[in-house]
Specification:
By secondary structure, the chain is of the alpha/beta class.
């Protein structure tokens, strides 16, 4: 299996090289040269545990790591989860037009967020590849909340890695910040950027696009621009679809910000897993909902909400979807992305013709109502991001089972959850333990020069 850039100007590379490279040298994102077609082989996957399912699926994409070694990496990654099923499900009654909704709990990893599913695996990959090559990597990441702590948890203490995480100062939840800044390991560096998450993401992309900086600083990526993150996320879409598809395929409702999570579901569908629709559920930052309704991708003002991981106006993984939408035409993709970068808007010439996606935006009032109603009717507590997905699920009538991705434990957002329910119900011992720990962070302006200066000083 070889990996190519969406922008078509990077030589194909093997899986291990794609992991270390992160973002393609031509500014594009790496994707498989071809997708495996598994529609006729689904019986091989039925009834497998999550870990065995992951091992079998990933082997189709990884041919430069011995099978036994890859299986060991997968097993160690998911041994860190606190639930024996890794990704369990919970049925909620009376939602989605009085139909049941299955909640896919993706928050049982060490930082209580869905990012752990991918980043615990990516951390294992980094350790294996870098030790094999006797190399050091300086990981640069941008986070709107959960990616940072999950990335840090995946690589903290590794001698072959330093991790530099940028987050928007004052715009992640207090608990999310403490999950990053209380980590004492010397290879962890937290940068509080005076700007928005989009600023952080733009700074990261500009440094990766600078070939000299990327080479001399030995930069690598943990954000969802890294293909291995998407690969790990494909697993739970395939796993969930086979668990609940009967006579009808399933529909997934996905709280969506950077598009990486829902894009993994799109690839699972393309590969032949029984998936009907993917519901893109955005909060007030509705650039993706607007695109699927109008065909115009237009940057707007960032709205700060109770679901901060989705407070995004530029979805970095959307480029991968557009590559497929444009029939793998890299020239057309480059033209679209260059127009968007120059003007803040680009269009595909009308509402996209797709049978894969439904899209909607959910208001703050609807988020509060959904948290309250789910608790009152099911005794179940959901975080604001998951509430966005559940509120979206109520709007669409689909024939099969609806599965909503629960992307974070509610205890990560206690103020919002407790206020909506009217009781202090959002707690977790892992987060309680952070309260009295010392913190470390460096505040910097939102400029490439400031980030580069910090990296020049601290990168190994």
């Amino acid at each position: 299996m070889r990996y190519v850039s969406t922008r078509g100007q990077t030589e194909p590379m093997a899986f291990k090289d794609a992991v270390i490279t992160g973002m393609a040298p031509d500014g594009g994102l790496l994707i498989p040269e071809t997708l495996p077609e598994l529609g006729g082989r689904l019986d091989e996957f039925r009834g497998l545990s999550f870990v065995r399912f992951a091992e079998k699926l990933m082997a189709y994409f990884v041919d430069d790591i011995p099978e036994g070694t890859l299986n060991g990496l997968v097993e160690r990654a998911y041994a860190t989860f606190d639930h024996p099923e890794v990704v369990p499900f919970r049925a909620l009654r009376g939602l989605a037009g009085n139909h049941d909704v299955q909640v896919m709990e993706l928050f049982h990893g060490p930082t209580l967020a869905f990012k752990d599913v991918a980043l615990q695996f990516l951390g294992q990959l980094f350790e294996y590849i870098l030790e094999e090559r006797d190399e050091h990597l300086n990981i640069l990441g941008a986070t709107s909340g959960d990616t940072g702590s999950a990335a840090i948890a995946g690589v903290r203490g590794l001698p072959s890695v330093d991790v530099f995480i940028m987050f928007p100062e004052g715009r992640v939840s207090p608990l999310q910040e403490r999950q990053m800044t209380t980590i004492p390991d010397e290879n962890v560096h937290c940068l509080a950027v005076e700007g928005s998450f989009d600023d952080c993401q733009s700074l990261m992309k500009s440094l990766f696009a600078d070939a000299d900086a990327k080479r001399t600083l030995a930069l690598g990526a943990v954000n969802s621009v890294n293909w291995a993150r998407v690969l790990a996320q494909i697993v739970y879409y395939g796993y969930g679809s086979l668990k609940f598809a009967r006579s009808e395929p399933v529909t997934f409702c996905v709280p969506t910000g950077n598009f990486g999570n829902v894009f993994a579901g799109y690839l699972a569908k393309k590969m032949g897993f029984p998936i009907d629709k993917l519901v893109i559920a955005t909060n007030d930052n509705d650039i993706l909902a607007r695109f699927f309704q109008t065909g115009e991708y237009r940057r707007g003002t960032v709205h700060h909400t109770t679901s901060p991981a989705m407070d995004i106006q530029v979805a970095s993984n959307f480029e991968r979807y557009l590559y497929y939408y444009f029939d793998e035409d890299a020239v057309r993709l480059r033209t679209f992305m260059e127009e968007f970068a120059a003007t803040g808007a680009a269009s595909v010439g009308g509402p996209p013709q797709t049978d894969d996606f439904l899209a909607t935006s959910v208001s703050e009032a609807e988020v509060r109502r959904t948290i309250r109603d789910v608790y009152e009717h099911n005794g179940y507590v959901v975080d604001p991001h998951t509430a966005v997905g559940l509120a979206a699920a109520e709007r669409f009538r689909v024939p099969g089972v609806q599965i909503c991705a629960a992307t974070a434990h509610p205890a990560k957002f206690p103020e919002s959850v407790n206020e909506a329910i009217g009781r202090k119900v959002a707690r977790h011992p892992t987060l309680d333990a952070l309260a009295d720990l010392p913190t470390r962070k460096t505040r910097i302006p939102a400029t490439t020069e400031a980030v580069r200066a910090f990296l020049d000083k601290h990168a190994r």
